[in-house]
């Protein structure tokens, strides 16, 4: 294949490096935002996207008063950021096209790497599967069961893993003369 | 499923912007009653007649038919109580925390949530001194703090202030009727 980042023009190598660095910065802030608003574990993700459990009980015959002690920690937990369906529609509308563009650009970098065809296919699949898993998890938590939060967690880690693998191999092959597998 | 479809359609048509937290609930609580060292949550699961009475008075029903009051205590003695009230505006939800002293007057009001779109209007209203006008109000008062900031704040902040008025009104009635 003619497009080989190991032997590419210095300007192209620099472009790819800048692109990866910019994505890296965006991912760092993405992780920070996830930490602030959702969390990295399935329980926090489920709490964020499932929302409070629906109460279907009939109103009591007389008003019932229940009182219990509450710590500040419990009060903070009650106030956990919850993504309702309106916000999830908006998030999906905004994020999915951008995730697609990011996955496509990283895939273009993958095409310029010296990798076996199988590794190339696997990496491109990982790059596109990650956002699918991420948003599929959010919607399934919202519509089906909180147990699907694991998909969102897996999607998030897959996104980070895909970016890291591409960046490490690309920087290694472009700047440190790593030999490829292809 | 139709609820989900309608929600999605409404979000697309109205393009309600995401909710933003202006003040964390715990920070609002600490700000209102700094002396409190213990808290209890009092949940009132309203009966049909009580829910109807509240609805008749305010054209409002609390979420899931449950009113939640938080009582602060210092060394075992009550120092006050507060309630968080959500107001659904055409521009998205707004949340107001209303604290009451033990003499049953309003201790303070904090706007805890708005939306990306309404945040600047709400902040302008708050900076114009909106929340100061609620202090000392008791049951039976109809809050009209919005009108008092109109000249200083402008139209859109005043509009959001009328929504805060509405939230405080709900808190006043709910507290006087149900927090005994």
Describe the structure using short key phrases.
heterodimer, A: mainly alpha, 69% helix, B: alpha+beta, Sufe protein. Chain: A
Can you characterise this structure?
The complex is a heterodimer of chains A (182) and B (180). Chain A has 182 residues and is mainly α. Chain A has one domain. Chain A has six helices and one strand; from the N terminus they run ααβαααα. The mean pLDDT of chain A is 88. Chain B has one domain (17-178): Sufe protein. Chain: A (Alpha-Beta Complex), CATH 3.90.1010. Chain B has a six-stranded antiparallel sheet, sandwiched between helices. In chain B, β5 (92-100) and β6 form a beta hairpin. The N and C termini of chain B lie far apart (40 Å). β1 of chain A pairs antiparallel with β2 of chain B.
Helix/strand order of chain A: HHEHHHH
How many helices of chain B in DSSP terms?
6
Helix content of chain B: 40-55%
- The chain-level structural class of chain A is mainly alpha
Content-based structural category of chain B: alpha+beta
pLDDT averaged over residues of chain A = 88
Largest interface: A-B, 27 and 34 residues
Strand content of chain A: under 5%
